[in-house]
Every structure is written in structure tokens, then in C-alpha cells.
């Protein structure tokens, strides 16, 4: 190697032939390529690119840019396609409806509002209470042109077994809402609720309007279920603004405040008038 370096220096000093120049050009080209590769692998550049996006991470929280600091093979990482005011991610699959297996898809609910919620697993404690609550009050949703679909990563056979188990034994009993099977976990991943490290979902609830636009997302940790009353209120509020505009709720609130104020004034005036008559 020392002899080679002496030769290279000699060639450079004397400027003899094109061999030395060609070798120098080749060395510089290799160094340039290596520098470009190193720059492409710079983790700071990766973090800067990652900061431009928000990623859903296991646990249900959003870490802007954190995904760039994690290997892409991390099984706890997934991206959500569900975005407020954008079309809801399409889904289709087999569901248990009225005790039978039927194919179900998102487009079956066009022209209606849809409450689409996920629960972790069949045969768990919190899940039956909220699923039964939504099922028992389905007519209240249908009265406002809304349907409800529940989904988990269990198979259709597990869904059916849970439905066929009496409620006193931890089952669901007869259901008035479909239970959709997401055995491939693809639907759960698309909606950003799937926990890779645990193999099931968070308690996510999505309100999709009659034009298939996603209007609301609720994401709960595992121990706590969703409120039927609050879900009904949200659907009614969205439908009200669809019909009357965004300022309608504020105007309605102002009107209620005015009426309550007038009522208080009249009550106070009436009491004062009665006292004056008695005196």
C-alpha cells in the first residue's frame, strides 16, 4: 500500500499521463457517493420528515414525528386512515345479524348515519354492558335515521357463540345490532384502533354521516366503555347542524339563555307584585 501511495504522489507531482488524473477522479466520485448515502441515512433528516405527519401509536395516543425514531418493523406502530371530515375508510366483512352470518359493508349504510364502534374481545366483562346498551336502545338511533355496528377481531363463530350464551352467564343474548368480524385486523388498523402488541383493539367509536364522511372519533382505554346517551347527543347535534348550519346550535343556546332570563325576571316581578298586594 505504501508503494501505491508513493506512486500516486509521484504521478500527481509529475502530472504524467492520464492514469493519475483518472484515478483521482474515480476516488472523488466514490467519496461523493458515500457522502450522499450517509446524508440519506442521517436520522435527523428522518426525524424532520417524520415531524410533518402524526402517527397513531399503541396505547391510543398520537406522537407527531415519533414514528421516525422507531424502526418500521415495530409491531406496535400503525397509521390510521380515519380522519375527521374525510371519507370513512371502506370496510366489508362477515357479521352476525339476527343469529345468522351475512356479508356486510360500509356502503350498505349510505343515506344513513352510522355509529361504528370497536371493542377488544368477546367474552369480556365491560364489553357486554356497552354492546347490550347499544342494542337495547337501537330504536332510538333508528328513529333519527342512524344504525349501529359493533366490531372486534374475533371470528364470526366466536361472535355467534357469545350471542348464544345467556346474559346471566356472561353472554350477549339476542342482539339487535350486527357484530362484525375483523379476523384479519385490517379494519381495526385502518381505523387506527388496533394494538399490535396486544392483538386486539382499543374502544374506538366513529360517527359516520349519511354521505360516508367521518364526523367524530372517540378513543377510550380498555377499562371504560362508551355512553349511549352521549353518542345519541352527538348524532343529533351533527344532524341539526347539517340541516340548520354551524351557527344554529349557538343561536339555539342564546335563545334558551334569553328565555331563562325572561322567566327569572317574570318570576321575580310576580313575587314582588304579590307582596305588594298582600301589604
Automatic annotation (TrEMBL):
Give any GO molecular function from the UniProt entry. Answer: thioredoxin peroxidase activity
Q: Which GO terms describe its biological process?
A: cell redox homeostasis; cellular response to stress; hydrogen peroxide catabolic process; response to oxidative stress
Its UniProt entry gives the catalysed reaction(s) as:
a hydroperoxide + [thioredoxin]-dithiol = an alcohol + [thioredoxin]-disulfide + H2O
Provide the Thioredoxin domain boundaries: 82-240
InterPro entries (UniProt xref): AhpC/TSA, Peroxiredoxin, Thioredoxin-like_sf, Thioredoxin_domain
Name the Pfam families for this protein.
Answer: AhpC-TSA
Q: Which domain of life is it from?
A: Eukaryota
Signal sequence region: 1-40
Assigned keywords, A-Z: Antioxidant, Disulfide bond, Oxidoreductase, Peroxidase, Redox-active center, Signal
Does Nucleotide-binding appear among the keywords? no
Is Transferase among the key words of this record? no
Q: Which GO terms describe its cellular component?
A: cytosol; endoplasmic reticulum
EC number(s) for this protein? 1.11.1.24
Similarity comment text for this entry: Belongs to the peroxiredoxin family. AhpC/Prx1 subfamily.
Q: What is this protein called?
A: thioredoxin-dependent peroxiredoxin
Ranked from the top, the taxonomy reads:
Eukaryota, Metazoa, Chordata, Craniata, Vertebrata
Q: What gene name is given for the protein in this entry?
A: PRDX4
